[in-house]
Each structure stands twice: as C-alpha cells, then as structure tokens.
Amino acid sequence: MDVLRPPLIRIGGRVYRKNLIREQPFPHEEEEDFCAGPGECADEPCDAFVVEETERGFQCRLEVPSPLYKYIIGKKGETKKRLETETRTSISIPKPGVEGEIVITGQQRSGVVSARTRLEVLLDSFRRRQPFTHFLSLPLNQPAIQENFLHFKEEVLQKCSKDHGVSSSLFQNPAKLHLTIGTLVLLNEQEIQKACDLLQQCKEDFVDQITGGQPLTVEVAGVEYMNDDPAMTDVLYAKVHMKDGSDRLQMVADQLVERFVASGLMLKEWDRVKLHATVMNTLFRKDPTEERNNTMPGKSSLKERESFNGQNILKLFENFHFGEVQLDSVRLSQRFSSDASGYYATSGQLCFS
C-alpha cells in the first residue's frame, strides 16, 4: 500500500509523493526519493523560491538551522556529494554551529531547482525526527488549581496505592499544570522569533474576535484516560470545558494549530485539538522532567512506559473538581525549563486581554 498510496508532503506550495528507499547505505542518514505530486512539475519552482542568474550560471539560497547541516552532509560527506553529482551543482554549507544560508550553484537552472527541491524534501524528513523544543500551552497552575491537584494526589495515593503501578512518581508537577495546544521544533533564534511573531498575528487575525479581548473562564473537572484499556493506563488527564458552555477555547486552539501548520512550524496530527490537562503520566516514573506530547509518545518512550491500573481512580474520581481558572494567555513554552514560578520558561505569548 505504501507503493500504491505513498504519503504526500507539501513544501513551499508544492506536493511530493514520498517513495521510501528500503536499502539504506547509512542507517542514521536515511534519505527519501521523491517525485512531483499530481498537477505539479518537478523541474519548475512554482514561485516557491528564487533562482538567481549569475555570471557563472544560476544560484539559489536556502535558510537552514545549523543543527540540520549534518543531515545534508551525511556520513563522511556522502549525502552532499551524491546530491551535487546527481544534480550537477555545488552546495556550500556554513561551518557547524554557524547560522547562515546554504547556497546552491550550477550551470543549469534545472539542476539548481532539482538540488533545492531535494534538499527541502530531505530536510522536512529530518526535521520530523527531531524531538520537539517548544509547545503552545495554556497555564493551569493558579494557586487554587494547584491546591486541589495536591488534594487529588493525596486521595489517590490513600485509596488506590495498592493498585498495580500506582505511585507518587506518576503525578504531574503542580507548578507545571497546563493544556498543550501543539508542539514545535524550533532549531534557532530565527525560528523562535517567527513563532512569536505568528502568535501576535493570530491575536490580530482571529483570537481577539473569538475572546472579545477578555480571559476565558474554564472549569477543570473529571478525569479520563488516553489509551484503550483503563487497566493499562499510561496517561490520565483532567477534562476542561468553558464555563459558559461555548466552544470558544476549542476554536482558539484549532485555529492556532491550523495557522501554525500552514506556516510550516507545526505538524498537523489531529483534526481537532484534544483539550486536556495531564495529571498522571507513566513517563514521569523514570523522568519527572519529561514533557513529551502525551498523546503522541515517541517510539523510545513506549519501551520505557510501565502502565498502571487506573480503573479505581476513574471510578472514585470521575467527577473530581479541580476548580475554575481564568485563561488569559497562550504561551510559547520551552521544553525542559522552568521560570521563577516553576512553570515553563516563556519564549513568547499571546494575551487575550
């Protein structure tokens, strides 16, 4: 089915079919071949990027975060050499750790276009494999919520500690209670600034209209689990809903994801954002600082998980009331960080009021 219905990638207004190469010379430097999707032309840039004519031929520039240089170079430089040979171009890459532009030069315009396109497909693939660095969050760490959460933790340990896998190490840090809207891979300061600028643009374009320039009052109540079997629970989360019964918070979250996906800063995983606040996570058992996207655990994390039996917790705390909270901002939060309050360090934010 991968051959008949290969996955599609949209890059710079162009659509490509990904044909996976099964035999790879270097396991850690996998590459993917490509061809233009329906209605697209492989030899024309479709105004997606600029190819300049020079005295010696043609030239194209591509901004690439320095952490991705190694993937273009490949093991012993083989990836770069092969791209240059097959497209009859020269690819100039800045020194490791130095932010700058990759410059592609060649005597034939078609060769430069081909090299640029192939690099974009490779970079998109490699970027998808990077662990996320930031995420859009809505803080839920107000004092009243934290106090109720600690009360919830105490009662769970009193009543359910004999259930398989239940221990104090599973619980979220109360100072970091939050709703996750979506995760991002931001690999340099330029990309972080782009995300911050996009947040402000979203505020002007639709957030103010949805919120009316006022905080959103939400109620955090009840618990639910992520996976299929409550006896083998990995993530237990608190449910949230708008106090006025509207779907304004859902609208803000969904439209933010739509805009960030369109910008290329975020990958679209679901049709709608699942609004939830993680209260217990088996990933915390081995690493209390773990901040993975709880709904999309990575392959390595699946091996690290030791599920717990959440059946009694779900019965006893089905309607547990964590409290009400005024949501007044969406933050661009930095993974594996803390500010003075104990919450995640903020790289940028969008304020509702």
What does this structure look like?
This protein is α+β, with helices and mostly antiparallel strands. It contains eight helices and 15 strands. It has two domains: 8-128, Ribosomal Protein S8, Chain: A, domain 1, CATH 3.30.1370; 134-351, Cyclic phosphodiesterase (Cyclic Phosphodiesterase, Chain: A), CATH 3.90.1140. 29% of the residues lie in helices and 27% in strands. It has a four-stranded antiparallel beta sheet, with helices on one face. The protein has a four-stranded antiparallel beta sheet with strand order 9-8-14-15, covered by helices on one side. Strands 12-11-10-13 form a four-stranded antiparallel beta sheet. The model is unreliable at 21-47 and 292-302 (pLDDT under 50).
Write the layout of secondary structure elements.
Layout: E1 8-11, E2 14-20, E3 32-36, E4 52-54, E5 57-64, H1 69-73, H2 78-87, E6 89-92, E7 100-106, H3 109-128, E8 134-139, H4 143-160, E9 178-184, H5 189-211, E10 216-225, E11 235-242, H6 248-263, E12 276-281, H7 299-304, H8 311-316, E13 321-327, E14 329-334, E15 346-351
Antiparallel strand pairs: 1-2, 2-3, 4-5, 5-7, 6-7, 8-9, 8-14, 10-11, 10-13, 11-12, 14-15
Helix pairs in contact: 5-6
Keywords:
elongated, RNA-binding, 29% helix, Cyclic Phosphodiesterase, Chain: A, Ribosomal Protein S8, Chain: A, domain 1, 4-stranded antiparallel beta sheet, KH_dom_type_1_sf, alpha+beta, 15 strands, 27% strand, 353 residues
